[in-house]
Amino acid sequence: MVDKCKSFVHKHCTDIIVVILIAILVEINTLILNFPIFRVYKRFFLLNLCLWFLIYKFFQAISNNYWISLTIATSLNLLFLFGTILKIKFRNEPILPADLKMLGNLPALLKMVPISIVGLFLIIVIALIIVCVILSKKVKVPKLNRLGRTFWTLVPIMILGSSVIWNRPNTVGNKLVMSLIQDPMFWDQTQGVQIHGPVIQFLSNVDMSVMNKPAEYSETKIQHITNKYKRLANEINQERKHYIKDQTIIFNLSESFANPKRVPDISLNSNPIPTIDNLKRKTTSGLMMSSGYGGGTANMEYMTLTGLATCNFSPTLNSPYSQLVPHQTYTPTILNSFDYSVAIHPYTSEFYNRKLNYKKFGFDRFYSLDNKKYQIKHKKTIDNNEYQSDETAYDNLMDELRRHRGGQFINLITMQNHLPYDHLYKKKAVTAKVRNHTSKQELENYATGIHYTDKAVAKAIDEINNISSPITLVFYGDHLPGLYKNNMKKDGLALHKTDYFIYSNKAAIKQGAKRLKEHTKYVAPNDFIAMVLKQTNSKVTPYQALLTKVWQELPTFSVDSTGTSSKPQFVNQKGKIVKYSFFTAKQKKLWHEYLLVQYDLTAGKNYVKNTGMMK
């Protein structure tokens, strides 16, 4: 027996060494990510160990070189660990399959990562390569035979590839995975990665579904809803005088814009956004409930353009721009109400797949840094901030307003206040006091950035006000910066409130635009279409009539701000969370109609395309 054990160890010593190394790496992941140690969650430790061993064996089968496969597998493990740590820090979520599309723009992605982290990772990988090269010359490891290579190529592909069906109910793969994982924790991806580990949580999100089918979904039901809102649209339009296509509407997403003074345990010696706060007192304004923290920009943008809420999608659909829109054949947006539309983004066009998605949406022009035909002009950065300033964004906006005088829709996405927030500005605009381990330096840099935004907005508003054609600007912050270290379960609601206002210039007011005073204190990104139509006294389609009713009669809804549920969170006009169970029968019916239409547009048969709902 002893001889057999010795023989086995001698024959498989290299694989045993790999298993020990992977076990150490998994335990390092465990300790750094702060998820329970393997003695408590033994099955996850062993499962991670098996999965990483399969990854190593796959690369060994492909390369037929022990040291190359060991280097690749170890580097991938460290990459997953580094990436997960950074993403949790900045966006409160781990690496997910949707993030892989970001690799298509790797240089821009690396700019968002602290240079010290990139340097540390490269040093570790280079050291690992050097050690493996030295050992490969001293220790000769036998190559796999043909049968071994075939086996270790197919088995990892079959096991890891089975993740494409993990989330399909009642399948063998789903039953097996659920028996091991039990709860993939889509409702709290960060806690999921702390319990399961990066690779298991990543694979759990591979099998993406768009949205659960609501009860009663059918062509007949969608036609019934269409007829109902056709009647409502006719009623609304009897009192509305204008067509939105004859005016200029600007949706201005201001990157990471939210006044820090609302965040618990944070105090500033002065208000960094006095102009915008003054504008908010005079215009339609309030707080927007964001469905993201530290990230999710494209999700907020998607909601403003479509009127659809991401909180109704499956938890595995993390990014509609990456996972949904590219595969859709029918993508109605607010652009359908205009004859001409433009997008302006002083950054790369590839991020969040905007280049392809904007083309599908129907934008006539897309100004970006990498678009040779429609290039960003007036380039200007501030001090050490590498991103184009908000002044750059608004200067390009003014160019477009002067160039095209007729009605148009403009989607303006800024970049100035994007992370990181260290060592950006030479002179700070505010001084901060912080608790909960929030970085004082990062907060002061961020607050200085939004102070520059405040000045740029003031200049842009003055210029817009002097234009003789009617213009209405919807300004909103997409999410808070991911620099606050507050407890999300305790302060989650506060950490998802951003600033917004809707400003109409003199020409628009003269034409009949009026400040909205009801249902404005708390809104969601998907409310802006209905709100701007109401403020400008513009006619609506049946779909926009539905959005109007949703905005006016339902509480604001978003993803759960505490990260403890996958269900939508509802917030009333007093800023209090309300439960769906307290909805009236009328509200429940309206909510269900909204769900049916959203499902039809995104995961269903697109019946609304032929019912007249969108026209």
List the helices and strands and how they pair.
Elements (H helix, E strand, L loop, with lengths): L1 H10 L1 H21 L8 H22 L2 H26 L14 H6 L3 H24 L7 H16 L10 H10 L7 H8 L1 H7 L14 H21 L8 E7 L11 E3 L5 H9 L1 E6 L7 H10 L13 H4 L17 E5 L8 H8 L3 E4 L21 H14 L4 E6 L18 E3 L5 H26 L5 E7 L10 H4 L5 E8 L1 H6 L10 E2 L4 H8 L6 H12 L2 E3 L10 E3 L5 E2 L6 H18 L5 H4 L4
Parallel strand pairs: 1-6, 1-8, 3-10, 4-5, 4-6
Antiparallel strand pairs: 2-7, 3-9, 8-9, 11-12, 12-13
Helix pairs in contact: 2-3, 2-4, 3-4, 3-7, 4-6, 9-10, 11-21, 16-17, 20-21, 21-22
How would you describe this structure to a colleague?
- This protein is globular.
- The chain is α/β, with parallel strands linked by helices and about 625 residues long.
- It contains 23 helices and 13 strands.
- α2 (about 15-35) packs across α3 (about 40-65), α2 (about 15-35) packs parallel to α4 (about 65-90) and α4 runs antiparallel to α6 (about 115-140).
- The chain has helices spanning about 1-10, 15-35, 40-65, 65-90, 105-110, 115-140, 145-160, 170-180, 190-195, 200-205, 220-240, 275-280, 295-305, 320-325, 355-360, 390-405, 440-465, 490, 505-510, 530-535, 540-555, 585-600, 610, and strands spanning about 250-255, 265-270, 285-290, 340-345, 365-370, 410-415, 430-435, 470-475, 495-505, 520-525, 555-560, 570, 575-580.
- The longest helix is centred in the first third of the chain and has 26 residues, at about 65-90.
- β4 (about 340-345), α15 and β5 form a beta-alpha-beta unit.
